[in-house]
Amino acid sequence: MYEQTLLKPLRIGTNDLPNRIVMAPMTRSRADNPENAPTALHALYYAQRATAGLIITEGSQISRQGVGYINTPGIYSTAQIEGWRLVTKAVHEKGGHIFLQIWHVGRISHPDFHDGALPVAPSAINPHDRSYTPSGFKETVTPHALTLDEIQAIVQDFKNAAVNAISAGFDGVEIHSANGYLIHQFFTNCSNIRTDAYGGSHENRARFFFEVLDAVGGAIGFTKVGIRLNPSAHGFFGITIDKDTIPTFEYVVKRLNDYPDLAYAHLVEPMLPVDNVPYAVKDIAKHFRPLFNGILITNCGYNAESADRIIAGEYADAVSFGSAYIANPDLVERIRQGSVWAKPDTNTYYTPGPKGYTDYPAL
Mind telling me the catalytic residues? Predict the structure, then answer.
């Protein structure tokens, strides 16, 4: 059998992980209650997967304004904090480690979520995508361009969410800065045409991200903070790559070295093919590893063998698995034994209840 570098221990922040297998954040839409609070069902789901070296939860909105999908849990109300305590307690009782991904979708939303108010974004540019609302998919609209005061209010919302997460028992938080959501929208020309301190140069387009990072890390400690980036996102959620895209992300990743206590940087490989996309980078971990001195987690499309190779080649320190964790709660054991991975039922990814959520068997 190949050498399983995935099964070697790793220290992330103040957490000594038993392996380098990370459960990636995945929206599962099970918070189908008026409070959008996690429940005992969430606790069971995550506890089943607690042998992962690290669990990163589904994205959890930092405020009502941050909502863009039905039945996603938040981290801004007392009920939500109490619900997440069920989850962290269940995972810790199994010996696991768990970070909460904190999230604001920005323009990938719909007025139906906001009592008729427009979603917000860096600039008033419609992503021409769809939002999954309580009455089904609806076309996105032209968002409201954030004012300077409104930007600062969202920075505070991220900080409050991080404090709430620690109160709920999480080992840390991951700032969702990827996949076309609000922070990512500030990075890219296709969604940010501002002419003030938040637009134009690489430094300006990254300003909001670093203000959030500083606020969150200042509140809970940088050893409890990870970040997620998707540099070659293209063709979904209104994001398109241009000549400034990768240089902006290179600026961001290099500047992360100014945060030596940062828990990790979580980079996503292209989610759609980019072979014919000008200016795109095909191999994200290999491209960005030389630019970053800290712990690097890579994600998207890996199997056990390719994950082992990327770690053995020192292009990443850990690998996160998404859909594989839906159908394989015991993914670590399956990797250890070289067993076949079960396939998930895509029809139950976002449906309420335990079917396709907590009913996948272990070996």
Answer: 181
